[in-house]
């Protein structure tokens, strides 16, 4: 098996304990790599390195333009090695090569964009009304950032955090999911080649109880950027509150796709399939609640099933494969449990509903694309995030009912709307309580557009110009040029 090492303070090393744990290939169900199992000692080393780099090392003395050039150089190196990084992602998390190669090839754009923003971070000169005084503001890095990322898109969710944080001048300790640590450790080789100063980027690997908690509660960590589940986000927020750390939380979703009776059905069917079965449904933005106008319900479901039946499952490295395995064994079991819950609740399973036993799936963790009709919005299958290829279909009879059903959820990450009416498109985009609303498309993301959720789907925004503000503090500076102070006991 391939053995990976930690990257702390610019050095490659084993965990202090010398312990490792196995990383599994979801397609074969077998371990393929050994990852260092870190402890609090390793976390302390990584945070100390990040703190020194911020306050005493070369990084803190670099100009903003020089920081931007380093980001751009890293982007060029990722573009050069995109095939290698994508292959590691596929082996570690089971997502399709066709998607991961495009995704990794897109990562440099984050570094180019935020690299360009690095020397455009500006303060201001407020027109104060007090005579004989001058005031201005400075934008300064928030400090040491702990970035904790999930297993479904390790490098992409890391880049959401890394690019704006480094552009702002922060230093970082990165903690990937214990299920998918390999690609981030491989990325650090390119960080080293790009010439980043020691301590700017550090990676610790391991489990939440051993590493995650130590990182979140560390007194020298100033901000936490987390992508993951609702329960993990809640625990992080509670721990972070003790030191009032800054937070960006991108959490779960239960996104609605609303198909109105005037929609182009064939396009909407493709969009709905993409929303729930692409990436095996393992995305926070999965369109897992499909809401159909009652007049088109039966025809739409028939078309949907017909297209979903054609989905090819199998080896994610095969470019013809359309649905790969579930990334982790625990998640595989969790999805099957939710399928059982839906059946017990009275939902009608019209496709799938079981583990996949096709020969092309081998020994991997595959689940058949699953569709439930006769779902009501109070069922667990409609309210809780399944994070798998499981769709809940519901009916509505007018626009108001559709908006009410879509918003009747504790989450608010994304939503989709399918209509040929501009009036409906604009109205729905306003009425839906979600951080992203797609109209006649789904799963489109960009480095220039803010991304994040409302309600239990999170705090803050990633991507776009707004993202860099999450990693900056604003300082106000007052300078008096008055000759004397009239009364020192009175506020000026």
Automatic annotation (TrEMBL):
Lineage: superkingdom: Bacteria
One Gene Ontology term of the molecular function aspect: oxidoreductase activity, acting on the aldehyde or oxo group of donors, NAD or NADP as acceptor
Catalytic site: 250
Keywords assigned by UniProt, alphabetized: Oxidoreductase
InterPro entries attached to this UniProt entry: Ald_DH/histidinol_DH, Ald_DH_C, Ald_DH_CS_CYS, Ald_DH_CS_GLU, Ald_DH_N, Aldehyde_DH_dom
Every Aldehyde dehydrogenase domain range: 12-477
Endpoints of the signal sequence: none
Pfam families xrefs: Aldedh
Family: Belongs to the aldehyde dehydrogenase family.
Protein known as: Aldehyde dehydrogenase
Originating organism: Caballeronia calidae
Lineage: Bacteria, Pseudomonadati, Pseudomonadota, Betaproteobacteria, Burkholderiales
């Amino acid at each position: 098996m391939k053995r990976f090492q930690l990257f702390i303070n610019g050095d490659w090393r084993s965990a202090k304990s010398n312990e490792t744990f196995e990383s599994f290939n979801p397609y074969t169900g077998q371990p393929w790599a050994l990852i260092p199992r870190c402890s609090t000692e390793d976390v302390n080393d990584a945070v100390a390195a990040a703190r020194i780099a911020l306050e005493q090392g070369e990084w803190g003395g670099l100009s903003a333009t020089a920081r931007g050039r380093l980001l751009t150089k890293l982007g060029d190196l990722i573009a050069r090695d995109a095939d290698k990084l994508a292959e590691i992602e596929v082996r570690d998390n089971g997502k399709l090569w066709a998607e991961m190669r495009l995704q990794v090839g897109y990562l440099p754009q984050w570094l180019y964009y935020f690299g360009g923003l690095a020397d455009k971070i500006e303060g201001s000169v407020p027109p104060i009304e007090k005579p004989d005084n001058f005031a201005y503001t400075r934008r300064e890095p928030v400090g040491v950032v702990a970035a904790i990322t999930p297993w479904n898109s390790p490098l992409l969710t890391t880049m959401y955090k890394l690019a704006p944080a480094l552009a702002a001048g922060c230093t970082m300790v990165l903690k990937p999911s214990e299920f998918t640590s390999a690609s981030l450790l491989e990325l650090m080789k390119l960080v080293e080649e790009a010439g980043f100063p020691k301590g700017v980027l550090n990676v610790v690997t391991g489990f939440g109880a051993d590493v995650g908690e130590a990182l979140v509660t560390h007194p020298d960590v100033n901000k936490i950027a987390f992508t993951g589940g609702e329960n993990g986000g809640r625990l992080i927020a509670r721990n972070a509150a003790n030191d009032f750390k800054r937070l960006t939380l991108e959490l779960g979703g239960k996104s609605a796709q609303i198909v109105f009776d005037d929609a182009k059905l064939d396009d909407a069917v493709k969009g709905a399939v993409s929303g729930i079965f692409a990436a095996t449904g393992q995305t926070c933005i999965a369109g897992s609640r499909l809401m159909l106008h009652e007049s088109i319900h039966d025809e739409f479901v028939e078309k949907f099933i017909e297209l979903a039946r054609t989905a090819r499952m199998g080896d994610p490295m095969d470019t013809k494969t359309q649905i790969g395995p579930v990334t982790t064994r625990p998640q595989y079991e969790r999805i099957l449990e939710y399928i059982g819950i839906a059946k017990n609740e009275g939902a009608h399973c019209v496709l799938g509903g079981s583990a996949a036993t096709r020969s092309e799936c081998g020994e991997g963790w595959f689940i058949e694309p699953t569709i439930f009709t006769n779902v009501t919005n109070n069922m667990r299958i409609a309210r809780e995030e399944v994070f798998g290829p499981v769709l809940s279909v519901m009916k509505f009879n007018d626009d108001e009912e559709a908006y009410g059903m879509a918003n009747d959820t504790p989450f608010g990450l994304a939503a989709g709307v399918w209509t040929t009416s501009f009036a409906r498109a604009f109205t729905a985009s306003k009425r839906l309580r979600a951080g992203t609303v797609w109209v006649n498309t789904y799963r489109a993301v960009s480095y220039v557009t803010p991304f994040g959720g409302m309600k239990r789907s999170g705090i803050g925004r990633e991507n776009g110009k707004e993202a860099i503000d999450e990693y900056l503090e604003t300082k106000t500076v007052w300078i008096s040029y008055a000759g004397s102070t009239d009364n020192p006991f009175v506020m000026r």
